[in-house]
Structures are given as C-alpha cells and as structure tokens.
C-alpha cells in the first residue's frame, strides 16, 4: 500500500519538479542577462569618459562655472511672469564700468568730457560678460536702476582726484554705488566690485571715508609680487577630469606672479599696511600680495574685503592683452604668454563672481545702454596712452578741477597737430555714421527716459 502511494507521489511530482526547474532556470537567465546589460552600459559610459580628450585649463574653468550654475538656486520673481519682458540670468553677466572725467578732452572732442578706456571693456568681454557704461552727474534713481540692472561693478584706473571731502562727480557716483553694493551684500544680494589701480585706491577711500593713500613711484614698471596669503581670489581649485594638472590652476598663477615681472604698474600713489591701519581698515580688507617701487617702498598690490566680494589690484591686468601703444612712455607693458594668462585669470575670476549675482537683467531695456551703443575712438593716433577710448558727454560746467594732474599723457604734441588729427578722425567718423560720435546718455532720449522713469536731475 505504501509502495503504491510512493509511486503515485513520484509520478505526480515529476511535472511539478520540471516546472520548478524551468522557473528557476528562467529566473537565473533573467538575472544574468540583467547583470550583463547593466555591466555593458556601465562599461560604455566608462569608455566614453575614458576616451574624452584631457581638457585644457580654460575648459576646466568653464566646467567649473557650469557646475557652479547647476548648484545655484533660482527664484521666481513677478517680473519673470511677465512674458513681454526678455530676461537673462547670470550666465552672461552685465558689468557696469564707472566712467571718469577726461581732463584733456579737447585733444579728442569739444563736447565729450567722460571716458572709459576700451581695454577695460575688452578685458571684461574676453571672459564672457557684457559692459554697460555708468555715467557721472546723474540723479539717485539712475544709479539705483544701474545697480539693479548690473551684476557687478568695475572701478577702472585713471587720474581723477580721490578726495572724500570733495563732491567731485566721480566721488559722488562712486559713493552711491558703493553704498548700494554694501547694503545689498548685507541683505544677501551678492554683488561684486572690482577696482583696478585708481579703483583699488578708490575702494580704500570709500570704505574709510578718508584719504589713506601714500606717495610711491611705480610709473611704467612691470613688477613681481610677494604673496602672504591666497584668500578667496586664489583659493585652491582642483580639476579631477584633468590628469595633466597635479596642482590647482590658481596655484600656477600665484607661482607665475611671484617669479616673474608680469604685472604692469603705472601709479604715483598706493595703499600700505600703515594706511589701512590708520583708516581702521585692517579688519575690512585682507592684503594678499605686495610689490615694491623703485625706491623700495612696499605697497599692497592685491587686496580683498574679508566679508564682502570687493577686490582690488594696484596694477593693470587689462593692459598686457589689449594695450600696444608705442607713442607714449608705456614701454614696459608685458605681452608674454604668461602675462596674458595672468590677465585672463583675473578677468575670469571677476566675471565668475558676477555670475553669482542674482539680478535679473531686462534685455529689452538694457540693450539700449550697453557699450555697443557707443563707438570707440582710435585715440592712439593722437599720441594717447590708450589704443581706444569710449567718450561720453558730461554736461555743463568745467571739469578741470575734478582731475589730478599725474603724468598720464606722456608726450607733448603741438596743439595744431593734435587738432588736425582729431578733426580728421571726427570727419571720417561722421562720414561713416552720420554724426560725430554715437553715444547714448541718460536723460537725453525718450527711450532712456522711459527706462529711468525720471527726467535728468540736478548735478549730483
């Protein structure tokens, strides 16, 4: 009885066992196939990564900026909901460059008293940003709107007088913009300022409301520097996708600046440690590097604000790649490959800082105010120290008292020769474009009055 039962059970269990083995076999095959596919995809991805060509330093910087954008949070403002406005984010920042009074404007034109050296514009644009000129002698609303419609401010070099006790047009405009930037950063609105040469000196004056400058002699000199710390400007950076770079790029720049005469200096005043202490700025600005003039006077050549994105350099990073004048006494501007790399590093850094600003730029309005609306003048033909300048109308009144007479225009040119060359340039310009100079000044056109929503106010 038991034997029959066992035989029946054995016969009944054969199909069951067969189906079980089939199920298990199919399951094993499915798991193996899934593993093979997954491994194949992973190998393909790894193969794509491994076959990528090693990226250059510049490409790595671009990648770093892109990664920075990916991690930056975005917010929606009421302006974004208005589809009639064309808004652009900080991928292409707009940098405001403060104009300056042109003391010898009659060499170039009878009406345009303000200027920006074109090399500053090219320097900013070479790192992927756009430029809008910020004019002097405007009302408060103009500067507020310009602040809101820019992602950073550049204070260029020049020869304008820096005296916090005098309300010169440049000092008034700079004070307003500096306060707007200071208040904005305290609110969490990241707004960088960059000062070059006179711009560094101006930052120190604005931050202390006193004259902290000292005499030094660094005219037409390419100098090395001594670093004491790297700060934010030279913070170590690593690029894991660049096998040929065993050290960070900023470290390479620091080494270049230390070992070679790559920075072009043209100034008779400077900021020192004693000056910062005297002004109570030792806890506000952090010196990163020093240089020495021909009399062995040590001065601060790079500083940065400790708690704010404010940066200053005493030298001219814009000159090596863009100033080639031979008719002035600028005989020592370095144009080596290393000096160009250093120049680009500073421009890239500042534009990168501006990309962190969240101001939404209304392109439908700001396009009218970008530097493209102004034609540069080829001033090197007039024995100028700049290849090109952008010239802008100033308004009524003399500008002679607003500038400091430093040896800026180096060669004496007979007035009749200068006037003849100037007239030839203006006549040629008029033939090409139908007017003396293409400029757009706030308060001078209907479109700009619409932008600022106010008539031009009294002189600031």
UniProtKB/TrEMBL annotation:
<keyword id="KW-0732">Signal</keyword>
<feature type="active site" description="Nucleophile">
    <location>
        <position position="197"/>
    </location>
</feature>
<dbReference type="InterPro" id="IPR011697">
    <property type="entry name" value="Peptidase_C26"/>
</dbReference>
<dbReference type="GO" id="GO:0005773">
    <property type="term" value="C:vacuole"/>
</dbReference>
<keyword id="KW-0964">Secreted</keyword>
<keyword id="KW-0378">Hydrolase</keyword>
<feature type="active site">
    <location>
        <position position="316"/>
    </location>
</feature>
<dbReference type="InterPro" id="IPR029062">
    <property type="entry name" value="Class_I_gatase-like"/>
</dbReference>
<dbReference type="Pfam" id="PF07722">
    <property type="entry name" value="Peptidase_C26"/>
</dbReference>
<dbReference type="InterPro" id="IPR015527">
    <property type="entry name" value="Pept_C26_g-glut_hydrolase"/>
</dbReference>
<feature type="active site" description="Proton donor">
    <location>
        <position position="316"/>
    </location>
</feature>
<dbReference type="GO" id="GO:0034722">
    <property type="term" value="F:gamma-glutamyl-peptidase activity"/>
</dbReference>
<dbReference type="GO" id="GO:0046900">
    <property type="term" value="P:tetrahydrofolylpolyglutamate metabolic process"/>
</dbReference>
<feature type="compositionally biased region" description="Basic and acidic residues">
    <location>
        <begin position="426"/>
        <end position="439"/>
    </location>
</feature>
<comment type="similarity">
    <text>Belongs to the peptidase C26 family.</text>
</comment>
<dbReference type="GO" id="GO:0005576">
    <property type="term" value="C:extracellular region"/>
</dbReference>
<protein>
    <recommendedName>
        <fullName>folate gamma-glutamyl hydrolase</fullName>
        <ecNumber>3.4.19.9</ecNumber>
    </recommendedName>
</protein>
<feature type="region of interest" description="Disordered">
    <location>
        <begin position="426"/>
        <end position="460"/>
    </location>
</feature>
């Amino acid at each position: 009885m038991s034997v029959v039962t066992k035989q029946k059970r054995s016969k009944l269990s054969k199909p069951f066992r067969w189906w079980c083995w089939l199920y298990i076999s199919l399951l094993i095959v499915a798991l193996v196939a899934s593993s093979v596919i997954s491994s194949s995809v992973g190998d393909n991805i790894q193969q794509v990564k491994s076959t990528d060509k090693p990226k250059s330093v510049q490409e790595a910087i671009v990648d770093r900026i892109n990664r920075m954008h990916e991690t930056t949070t975005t917010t929606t403002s009421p302006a974004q909901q208005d589809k009639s406005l064309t808004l652009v984010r900080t991928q292409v920042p707009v940098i405001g460059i403060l104009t300056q009074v042109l003391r010898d404007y009659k060499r170039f034109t009878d009406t345009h008293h303000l200027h920006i050296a074109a090399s500053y514009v090219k320097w900013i644009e070479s790192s992927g940003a756009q430029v809008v000129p910020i004019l002097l002698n405007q009302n408060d609303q103009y500067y507020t709107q310009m602040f809101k419609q820019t992602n950073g401010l550049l204070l260029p070099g020049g020869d304008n007088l820096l005296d916090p006790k005098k309300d010169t047009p440049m000092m008034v405009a700079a004070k307003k913009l500096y306060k707007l930037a200071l208040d904005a950063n305290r609110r969490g609105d990241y707004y960088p300022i960059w000062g070059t040469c006179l711009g560094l000196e101006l930052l120190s004056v604005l931050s202390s409301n006193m004259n902290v400058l000292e005499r030094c002699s660094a005219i037409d000199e390419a100098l090395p520097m001594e670093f004491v710390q790297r700060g934010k400007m030279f913070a170590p950076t690593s690029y894991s996708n660049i096998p040929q770079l065993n050290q960070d790029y900023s470290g390479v720049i620091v080494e270049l600046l230390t070992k070679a005469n790559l920075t072009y200096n043209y100034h008779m005043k400077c900021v020192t440690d004693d000056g910062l202490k005297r002004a109570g700025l030792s806890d506000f600005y952090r010196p990163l590097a020093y240089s020495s003039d021909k009399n062995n006077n040590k001065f601060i050549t790079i500083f940065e604000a400790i708690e704010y994105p404010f940066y200053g350099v005493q030298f001219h990073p814009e000159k090596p790649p863009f100033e080639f004048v031979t008719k002035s006494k600028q005989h020592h501007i370095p144009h080596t490959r290393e000096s160009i790399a250093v120049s680009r590093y500073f421009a890239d850094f500042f534009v990168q800082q501006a990309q962190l600003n969240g101001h939404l730029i209304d392109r439908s309005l700001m396009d009218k105010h970008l530097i493209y609306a102004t034609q540069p003048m080829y001033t090197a033909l007039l024995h100028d120290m700049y290849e090109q300048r952008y010239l802008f109308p100033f308004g009524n009144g003399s500008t002679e008292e607003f500038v400091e007479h430093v040896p800026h225009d180096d060669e004496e040119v007979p007035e009749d020769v200068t006037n003849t060359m100037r007239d030839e340039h203006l006549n040629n310009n008029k033939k090409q474009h139908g007017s003396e100079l293409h400029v757009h000044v706030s308060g001078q056109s209907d479109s700009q009055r619409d932008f600022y929503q106010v008539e031009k106010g009294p002189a600031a």
